User: Fold these one by one.
Assistant:
Number 1:
Amino acid sequence: MHFESIFQTHIAGRLHLCWFSVQGEAGAHVDSSPFEVDKLHMDFWRECIDSSLPPMQFTHVVSFVPPSIAAAIADRERMLAQGAS
């Protein structure tokens, strides 16, 4: 994962959270991660996410990523792709 952001809103007096992340092609699914932080994320998900509600759909409008960050992401993608070969 390159980076992650969390957004919040209140609907009908209830807090709702939304995650946005930028991930590379070589990333593993969080369910198979050996890292404790990912296990905590999944525990939180199972405790707090109401899967019976339909997901909210968002349409991408614009990205604000400085060229230096975009270059670092591209460099990391190339490095990960070489490691997978």
Number 2:
Amino acid sequence: MKKALFSGISIHRSQFFLIFFLIFNSITWFFTILFSDTIAWDLPRLWLLPAATVVSFLIGPLIAERVSRMRFLLLWVLLGVISSLFSAVLPKFGEHGITILLVLWGFSFGIGFPSCLALIPTLTRIEERGRVGGVIFFLTYAILPLFMLTIGGLDISSSSLPLAAWRGFGLLPFFLKVDLSALLPASYSSIVQRRQFLLYFIPWLIFCLINYLEHPILEQSLGANFLETLNVIEFSVGSLVCLISGWMMDFKGRKWTILIGFVALGLGYAALSLFPFIFAVQAFLTAVDSIAWGIFTVAFSFAVWGDLANNQRAEKFYGLGITPYLLAMGLAIFASPWLKIFDLGKALPLASLFLFLAVIPIFFASELLPEKMLKERELRKYVEEAKKVAGRP
């Protein structure tokens, strides 16, 4: 008999390892490339990396429908190994070689990542999906800095073999025997016409755009050190918040937890717009930004799109759902020279306004966790508290 992961979480250990290691391996591989010294952030065509990733997010699910799920994921990991090895060769061809490499990196990550995430609703129950996601992203965020400090400190050519070797470790889960149920496919047109999808997607898109488009403005006005500190704290505090928010999503609901993130971040930007150069206010924004990132990582990278798939193949739900993150990043890189001329005093109030407006669709969205399940948990909690008061075991 297969053993469950933890008490109260029914996912089998082999199933958890399959999801965890594929997500952990791919994210650490890609983010080591993206947020480290492996590539220079002043490259004029760096926006091609997130752009290629976004395009492949949408193409990958179309291919995955015609191929065995595990075979497609196997080919995806192998493509990452090959693109890592190419980083030792292509830079020798100058600017054109770097351009091809950026596109290859983005494509080799994005083509299979939605299919990787689509394993989530197949192998996890809705009532424990938040906690499983919280554990996965807590471990990923906590360990990711180690990759950036080691492999990330190398130049493009020197990082080729370590990146290829690490991506190759992504083949380990394929030695496990995990049964995947057959599900009905969904079309992109049917997904974007769903009211529930749009009510969760639009606030997430707004957040991503504000978060990344504000970065060049904050760097210009408050300095690069502030932005670096913000990123470091996001990884450390955000990883812990992933764990906590995953528990909250399973016991309090997705909608309520997401609202906390938006309201907190809106207050942070509003405070900074009034007192941009006061350290306490900067610290407050850093704290609420980390909290929001922890909540939104679990919600919009793991739980929400799997919940909305509802017994359909989830690749296209995740493909659409995670595009705002890389889309906003690419726009920020491309528009960075123009964004830096914006005045901080005008940009921050606008950011705060749009974040509060982003809350409105969430209010109209339905709770994704079944209402019956939430009521049963409240009743169970009430009974346990009543037993304690009565002095019964």
Number 3:
Amino acid sequence: MKYMIPGLCAVLISATIFGAAMAPAHAEITFKDKRLTALIASRPGDGTDVMMRILGRMFEKYLPGKPRMLYRNMPAGAGIKALNYVTEKVKPDGMLWVGASGSRLRPENLKKKAVRFDPRKFRMFGGLPAPGGLLVLQKNALPRLLDKSKRAVIMGGVAGNRSSNQIAIWGPEYLGWNMRWVVGYPGTGEMTLAFERTETQAYVTYNNFILEPMKQSGKYAFVAQVGFPQGGKFVKRPDYADVPLISELIKPKIKGGLALEAFEAWELIVQGGKWYGLPPKTPEAIVKVYSKAFLKAVEDPAYKKVAKSQWSPYYSVATAQEMQDLTLRLTQISDNALAYIETLKRKVGIPPQLPGLRRLRTTLKAVKGNEIRFKRRKKTIKSMVNNKTRIMVGGKKAMVGNLKKGMRCEVLYRKKGAAASITC
């Protein structure tokens, strides 16, 4: 088990966390004879729920006063309702803590109208980075993956927004994979069942209790993996050392510019995993008590046993500071990078989450001031260029004055408003 996320500060077990345990203020904090609420922002039985409940059992052992735990699932809006509730209704006194998946930190999800929380304001005390999802195929579907004259390999999804699953949007774009998505499955259980029934032929998971039986059966092919975040890069899971990293397959195919920015943004997003926190404005002393208990909990043999069986024998842990840093970096991902990912999702059949964006490879028909014109099918499109439009010409950043009629470009544009990017 490691304490590390690529690109984040190397806080292994912070002196501020251990030092705080000796502060007099901490000695006064106790939950003796209390019943704490563990609010789970997911459905019962899924990965977030399972890991939250084992952590709660550890907290009954390691939080001062050995409190009892009451578990409450609030999955509405894919966890949005729970996090809104914590932000707006919960007193920051340490009597309630919350756990959610990394998808609730994703910048495109935070743009939804229903979101009334700011993840940067939660007092996070730890997390579990996703332990490297693997793309698994039915073996009899493997020959179709690189043959577009055959029917497409079907990938199942909830809404196409699970980050590890998006191995299957980058592969079709840059590796020529013959894939199509079908979304609308309620959750992991239903997607797993559809894959086992061959209703779908592609599946992504990092859960060891699902992967290991597939590996032992010999019926499946392991095509690519996200890998573990470690030391500023991704490394292969030791238990799947023969499966190539998606970064090793994709990055040599990307020439730079917005595509590379988007891929590296996705690599940041995919680290989300699970995270645990307290309401905004929770006093620092309470946060440190939870942080200390979390670091003890994840070293407990009972916790390790569940984590290894559910996730991976080689799972990693994020400290409070690492989770805060990751959250901040996620909120800084550019709209253009998100828009690029959205266009890849559209191409494989995933409904867009950033409505109105389109991506087109086209020839510029005119450049007039801050307006470009190009054709989509038989219709002439006019799109404005402003200071937020990313322009690349010949692999270098450029200005609107560098754009010329006749250039072959990839344009990311909206029906209304300025273009997001122009790459020529």
